[in-house]
Design brief:
The protein is α/β, with parallel strands linked by helices. It contains 11 helices and 11 strands.
């Protein structure tokens, strides 16, 4: 984590990995904070693919007008197999030098930060990461950009599912995103009053799931709602339904996979503010001479975390919330 003062005059910014609501707000903050510091900005389209293939566009304050409320990313995102190779990263660094870019801001998740860290170490490029992923699985920040929006999108859908479940006295198995972590599944289950939440962080006991559902039937509940993270070892909601359906043949069981609606839509106010703070902070720490770091917010204060630490492991889920979810069933 370098702290040598760098005379940053031109910054590149890209979005990489899965899109998340609030990325546009972060880009906007980077551009406008840079303008206040007499720093020029180039946007790089399609992430690392565009970095290698010279998809650079000059950005100014007008370029980022009227985007803060839009989901997705106007710079687009794409995967790049070539960037995994040293030759690809060399080409990317040459393009940055061609445009006299002093530093690169990468808005994305841990995979994007891993690439940024390699680019910095191999080619002496100043980089700062801005955490943006709906999974909320990056250490060094209480929340990642897009998480709150995805959470509220999932909750809105689950609330509607609960209405129809009650009307027809049905059992619904709802799958939400979360391949490696269960943050969305856990918090939506608490907020929606779901009876059960299945997370990648906990081993799922099918017999125990069946027991709990039978107990709910005995209590004559009008409906049952099970929230399943896609990464749960049962294989997701469809596989879970196959494993338990014979025990509940008398119950009208339905499966609903929310999928990519959780990535889309207008970002919440919380995500817009977080993205604005982190985008502006990325410019600030670059001007202060930091590199190979990620900016985050912990206990409402800005925090700098070395990229090597941010990518070293996944953020752990709060056991207190798991206990709360079980208490409130």
């Amino acid at each position: 984590m370098s702290t040598d003062i760098v005379n940053v005059k031109t910054i590149g910014v890209l979005t990489s990995g899965g899109d998340s609501p609030g990325m546009n707000a972060a880009i906007r903050a980077v551009v406008r904070a840079s303008a206040q510091n007499d720093v020029s900005v180039y946007g790089i389209k399609h992430g690392y693919y565009g970095l290698i293939n010279d998809e650079f566009i000059k950005l100014d304050t007008h370029s980022v007008s009227n985007i803060i409320q839009r989901g997705g990313t106007f710079l687009k995102s794409a995967r790049s197999e070539e960037f995994h190779k040293e030759s690809g990263r060399k080409k990317a660094s040459e393009n940055l030098k061609k445009y006299d870019i002093d530093a690169l801001i990468v808005i994305g998740g841990d995979g994007s930060f891993t690439g940024a860290n390699k680019l910095s170490k191999e080619h002496n490029i100043n980089v700062v990461g801005v955490p943006a992923t709906i999974d909320n699985d990056i250490i060094g920040t209480d929340e990642t950009i897009g998480y709150d929006s995805a959470l509220n999108t999932a909750l809105d859908a689950i609330d509607k599912i609960r209405d129809t479940a009650d009307a027809h006295e049905r059992m619904f198995l709802v799958e939400v995103m979360g391949r490696d972590t269960g943050f969305i599944a856990l918090e939506t289950s608490i907020a929606s009053g779901a009876e059960i939440a299945l997370l990648p962080e906990e081993l799922t006991n099918i017999k125990e799931v069946k027991r709990q559902l039978h107990e709910m039937l005995k209590q004559q509940r009008r409906s049952s709602l099970v929230v399943v993270a896609e990464g749960d070892e049962t294989g997701g909601a469809m596989k879970l339904a196959e494993k338990i359906k014979d025990d509940f043949a008398q119950y009208d069981m339905r499966v609903c996979i929310l999928g990519h609606i959780q990535r889309g839509g207008s970002p919440t106010a919380r995500d817009r503010v977080l993205a604005s703070r982190l985008g502006a902070a990325a410019v600030k720490v670059l001007k202060e001479g930091h590199s190979e770091v990620m900016v985050g917010v912990v206990n409402n204060a800005l925090k700098i975390t070395p990229l090597r630490v941010a990518i070293s492991k996944k953020k752990e889920i709060d056991q207190r919330l798991i206990d709360l979810a079980k208490l409130l069933r």
